[in-house]
Specification:
Helix content of chain A: 25-40%
Low-confidence stretches of chain B: 1-7
CATH architecture of the largest domain in chain A: 3-Layer(aba) Sandwich
Number of domains of chain B: 2
CATH superfamily of the largest domain in chain A: P-loop containing nucleotide triphosphate hydrolases
Order of helices and strands of chain B: EEEEHHEEEHHHHH
Distance between the termini of chain A: 37 Å
Low-confidence stretches of chain A: none
CATH class of the largest domain in chain A: Alpha Beta
Distance between the termini of chain B: 31 Å
Helix content of chain B: 25-40%
Strand order of the largest sheet of chain A: 8-7-24-23-22-9-21-20-10-19-13-14
Mean pLDDT of chain A: 88
Strand content of chain A: 15-25%
Shape of chain B: globular
Number of helices of chain B: 7
Oligomer: heterodimer
Radius of gyration of chain A: 29 Å
Strand content of chain B: 15-25%
Structural class of chain A: alpha/beta
Largest interface: A-B, 15 and 15 residues
Number of strands of chain B: 7
CATH topology of the largest domain in chain A: Rossmann fold
Amino acid sequence: MADQAIGYVVGGGLKENLRVRLMVSPHEVQEGAFVVIESGDFLYYGLVTDLQLGATDPRFADEQSERRLPAALAQALHGQTLFTNLEVLPALMLERGPDPGAPTYADWLQRIGDQTPRPGPVKTVPAHHAEVRLAQEGDIAEIFGKPGARGNFVIGHTREQSHPVCVDLERLIQRSSGIFGATGTGKSFLTRVMLAGLIQYNKASALVFDMHNEYGFDDTASDTGLRVTGLRSKFAAKVRVVGLGAGTLIRDNTPDFHLEIAESDITTADIELLTRELDLKETTPTTLDALWSTFKRNWFGGFKAMNQDQVTTEDGKKVPASGSVAAWANASGVNVMAAEALHSKLRRLFQKPYIVEKPAADSIKQVIDALEAGQHVILSFGKYETDLDYLLVSNLLTRRIREAWEARTNAFRSSGKNEPRQLVIVLEEAHKLLNREMARQTTFATIARELRKYYVTLLIIDQRPSQIHDEVMSQLGTRISGWLGDDDDIHAVLSGLAGREALRGMLSRLEPKQEVLLLGWGVPMPLPLRSRRYDDAFWKELLGAKRTKEQNLKELGF
Amino acid sequence: MPARASSQSTAVEIGRVLRGGTAGFVAGCRVRELEAPQFGALVKVAQGEGYEVFGLIHDIHIDDDGLVRQLVTAENITPEVMADNRERRIVPIEMSVLTVGYRQGGQIQHALPPRPPLSLDVVQLCDDRDLRQFTERLGYLRLIVTAEEIPIGELVAAHIRQIQARRTDPGWKALASQEVITLLRDDYPTLMSVLGALGAEA
């Protein structure tokens, strides 16, 4: 069916989508098919968002005429009275110019000069009866980029004809992005695929907050039981696996180094972020302020060292012991009960083995150094898998990293030397850090808002996009979403995009585990895909592909 | 059968024009001429200088006369009386013909003719050559399906069956059926009536 017309335009418009009369069996075209409409000097690229059965008269559809009429006659009747209309969302248009054989072609070439037309927003509609065909490999390459060109990474294939579809990694790392999908839809596999592409491309460093210890070392798939290759296994020289806490083993492997947090690294703002997790009261900020006033940077250690003891005086009265919380509270003018309650609640943190007074090494600096050196860091939480660990460590580390990148960026802007390396922070279970309540306080929301200003962007992975703050969602340029069942989640993924209603149904009808919808203002047009499989063939293609002489010459500018 | 063949073709004469107009006409014939014409048959009326009007027989009508009325009630009608009355009847058998085209200057047009046939013009059944030429294109079916007060379904079905039987190309019937569907797809009752008749023929 290559290059063959599948239908012709019969109506519609920019607001209500185009209607196309299908000339082939509806089984040959699916919702989400990428189609090309040829009309005059323009090519229109669109997405099939609906297929509707129609009849010239409803009675032809109502009656099973094949039972009354001979087969040949019934077929002839159905061919003319029953039809299928496609609803096509026009996404892009491209000026292709007159036919090269036409007399006006030379004029057109002269008019456009060196500026080869690029696909742009649709500003008009194709004519009636303009022919519609399924997009070919060349059409997809025109829109999404040619596979094999540097920076173009094949993320999946079209559903009907398996043409490769690329994302532009150069653009991807300059904006925050998101991977969404309900549980079991292959988010982790797709993230591995994306990370492998980013690492191989080597234009940005990645910091992965690996809450479930999935990405570094080899793992076993929870559903199939098959071995899943870890990124460290394939990129041993480029990837550093960092285990949280001294002596932590990740899937029985020893990480490259361990992350320990100095007590002095924890600010009072880090604790305020944990208000919900630790069930802190409204009095907490006042108490924390007083602690900061008393101990400055060592407030955490100072508070941890306090006790809640009492001593009995000679006259039999019980008074706070020296070094107790109450004694400090009385001395600092803080409500004793509030201070003692906070002390009790922070005990969960005081007991964390990875928070130490003096770490063996400045492991946060090690992480930053590795990232600046162009390596990629996977921070595995090991046995510390609670939300409390995740929220505290990821926010604290990101704050430190952003400070480092901000300083480097400012230095670069002053001196023009040593441009900071682009950094992508990969955040699992992102809604825990980017929900409406937290988003205002965490560093992540700031990063999402700043876009590429400080060379740090986010890749957020989540199954509940509706829980993520709208302001953050709207900053995600590229969104890759697997199947979603919840209406609110679908609404969140589509927020701020044109043609939401048309895409909504498509998202809820994706094949779980296999298909994703590529969308967002960072990609040329929305498109459903069969996502690339993360298997041996993937690694062979990614690592084993030899570059051609032509590719090398092209990159050198020849 | 006392057929009178014209000098140009092997067409069979079946009667003469009684009355008519551009959309159709009525021909009269004798009983012994009645063996040749059939409901749905393609006929033509030649008027000289290559001008011929083509039509389809959509009704064959036998009127009574005074003598028949008397005989109907009589007892013991002998075969001689019956034959005498039929062959010498004064009222002819009438055939209603729907005009579906004409030939002028050697070109067949599927449209109403510029002028109707005249009284007593000879009506002939088309021979195979005329039939092939006239039905090569299917534009004349439009004039059938838009006609009023005729049994369109039965007429189209009978006509298609007869033509297919005399044409050598087996796909003609399918093409004709397609054309009928195209013409009538916005008229559900008529189309289903035509297809019902066509299906019954199959």
